[in-house]
Write a structure and sequence with these properties.
Layout (H helix, E strand, L loop, with lengths): L2 E5 L2 E2 L13 H13 L6 E4 L3 H9 L7 H10 L12 E3 L3 H16 L4 E10 L5 E3 L13 E12 L21 H8 L4 E3 L1 E2 L16 E2 L1 H16 L3 E6 L1 H7 L8 E2 L2 E2 L1 E4 L11 H7 L4 H18 L9 H13 L7 H13 L8 H7 L18
Parallel strand pairs: 1-11, 2-3, 3-4, 11-14
Antiparallel strand pairs: 5-6, 5-7, 7-8, 9-10, 12-13
Amino acid sequence: MNVLYLNGPVQNGPFTIAGRPGKAAGIRAAEALNTLLGTGPAPHLWNTVTLAGDQRHRDAPDQNTSRQEREERAIAAKYASDAAPAGGILTDTAPVVAALALEMTERLLHDGVLSVRAAAVHLCARCGHMTGAAVHGCRRCGHQECRPHTRRLLVWDRPTAAPVLAREDFHAHRASAPRHLLTIARNVPQRLILSRTRDHGISLGPLGLDGLVLDPRAGVHVTVLAAAAQAGAGQPVMTVTENAAANVAAYGALYRRHDGTRLRYALHGRIPYDDTAALQQWCAVHRVSPQQRELFLAWFLPLCSLHTRAGIAAAQLPGLLKFWRRAHLARPNAPGSDALAELRRRVAAGDMRWVMDVRTLSLAIPEHPVTHGFAQEPEGAS
């Protein structure tokens, strides 16, 4: 059963990777780890089922462009023209993802885990968007009034005390997991609604739920499983921040396993890319070349974020740069096969402690700079 790291699908929005490099932290960490494992390039995963995407499409002046085409164009614009992902791109509405999602959902319905039943919800009084079981303002149009409504939905009535997240769901040394994540997961509602109103998504019409799509928080998990299936990987690992995991874990609990494949999470922290203005000065002090600076930003920091899961502070950057320089100087001409095998074993096991060991890190540093995924920030973007 081979391990494959895949990024938690990134929400498609009006940004480029050059302008918002933190958005690609999970992508870059997964790429670096897969390269060390020798698994070959994996696709970059993107989340397109969003209310913000619905709004952008409705407000777009060009209404002759389909939603799917609009999403694909926006994702392509994230990358430099000569830096398309070697493993391709996979979105959460791709045909292979939709087919797998319906297959998994039908099986869960057949086994009685999920059900389609009438449930009381609230709809926006202005646009009709389903706001959920609780009363709150509409996240689609901003209207604050809603009305009660009963309709057939895809629901999961969880067994009493059934966990939606456990330590074993994390791919890490000793399966460690932040305690607060486990607490958040225990406090989700007993009934989870897994169907939503969106203009774009995996339609549940084949299951008799016209006008509804699979909850995108479940869909991002299916996207990872679909990418793993295409690569023949039995142990997919999703790189994800703690906040993202807290948001999606409960709704993806039933969509982390399929036909012997089990998805696990690898948590990574925030990288302070917005606070690197003084980096050029530090590079001069530590004699870091532009090539080494690129590797530090786009390769080492994403890996470091997997070790420092609470997030990297801007104040840590000078020390990390100095540490990185030491590791780069210590690179061996010909790494021993036993040392490389041990490094790969640790990477496959989710043990990221090696990142802060100078000698081991020196074995992993690639020869060439990481320029993949950069595109110029468009004029007027912020």
